[in-house]
Amino acid sequence: MISQPPTQGEQASSLPYQDTKPVGAPDFYFAINATFQFIRKRLGEDGLHRYWQDLGDTYFQPVTTAWREKGLPAVARYWRDFFDAEPGAHVDVGESSDAVEVTVHTCPAIAHLRAGNREIDPNFCQHCYFVSEAMAAPAGLTIRVEGGNGSCRQNFFAPTATTEPQDLRRITSCA
Amino acid sequence: MIGCYDFCGHYEWTFAWLDRQGGLDMVRDYWKSAISDDSQLHARNLIVPEGLEGMKKYWLHTLEEEAAGYAFTSDKKHFRIDMMDCPSKGFLIKNKLNQYSDYCDHCIGWIGPVMKDAGYVVDHEHNHCGQCWWEFRKKEDSTPPSQPGDFSGDKDVRQRPDWKQPEIDVFQRATDDTSK
Asked: What percent of chain A has pLDDT over 70?
């Protein structure tokens, strides 16, 4: 994907933690997948959900702060910067006045895990919902994920009284 | 999504989270079961069958990918890594991330079991500031670890003026993180 250059006064990246290299090392996706599998085996599905929620609540707290202060434009900017730093990602980020839509054509994690012949955690793609919801909720936003197992659509918006909860069956298993 | 760009940040955070769930036993189980046996399968598949040659292949690939500041030294019996600028610990220091008591222990936590299965032992020191050294030799080889400069010459991290820190952790002929 191609990002817009930062405008005057904008930081070069909205990512809260900065590295010296422009993109990450893809073999780390192996460790992310192994971590999910380990936590499920030791602490069960509820433990894995708790891990994802705690990660979103605490480690990603600086992102939540930016989203709370700057709203949906900050959400769009974050995901553009995020996927720019993930090797092999093919993602479009669309922005309107009331929503941000992240269309993942090629998920870099699933692609690398498949290329490495790794057994992918069946609910790997659910982490995108649980982590992002924990990041978004304190900012007055919510996320709905549809698809998975290599490509998906993620919508961020302000919930209303009629907003349906995330149906986890709409997130495709990687089994 | 959890990404690989800031992997070392959420990896270190995960150690602290697991410590709260099940203590040090769970953290060690994680390094062994999830990282050594599963995540690092590509390292195992090189090092266990190929020994020293597999070590060179694995670390050349991974340290280049991670943009590390390092040096390798080897002969027919030993393989040594001098790490002058660990990209992983360096990321944590740069971003002021410090959730777990000793992040650096994770390396021997996963490397040690791989070396045990390959028939090697590990001499290792880390100074908690992104610098460390490793020597790998067959478990039957009783040669002690090298003295500073004797094996890797001026690449030996122990000769750097910034090597000495208040706390240097030492592992001798180790195959896990318990022998500190």
From this structure: 94
Q: Which residues of A touch B7 (CB under 8 A)?
A: 24-25, 28, 31-32
Domains along the sequence of chain B with CATH: 7-179 (3.30.1380)
Predicted ipTM of the assembly: 0.94
Among candidates B173, B176, B180, which has minimal Cα distance to B140? B173
Count, residues in chain A: 175
Residues of chain B with Cβ-Cβ distance to A108 below 8 Å are 4
* Lookup: tokens for B5: 């760009």
Tell me, rounded to whole angstroms, the distance of Cα A50 from its chain centroid.
16
Which residues in chain B are contacts of A87 at CB distance < 8 A? Answer: 4
Closest of A140, A147, A51 to residue A91, by C-alpha: A147
Give the residue on A whose Cα is nearest the Cα of B25.
A42
Work out whether strand B132-138 and strand A142-148 pair parallel, antiparallel, or are unpaired. unpaired
Of B17, B35, B66, the CB nearest to A51: B17
CA A126, CA A147: separation in Å to the nearest integer?
10
What confidence tens digit (pLDDT) does each residue in A86-112 have?
A: 999 999 999 999 999 999 999 999 999
Q: What is the pLDDT averaged over residues A135-151? A: 98
Q: Which of A47, A85, A118 sits opposite B5 (nearest CB)?
A: A85
Domains in chain A: ranges and CATH: 28-170 (3.30.1380.20)
Could you tell me which residues are beta bridge partners of residue B125? B133, B170
Tens-level pLDDT at each residue, chain B (180 residues): 999 999 999 999 999 999 999 999 999 999 999 999 999 999 999 999 999 999 999 998 887 777 678 999 999 999 999 999 999 999 999 999 999 999 999 999 999 999 999 999 999 999 999 999 999 999 999 999 999 999 999 999 999 999 988 899 999 999 988 887
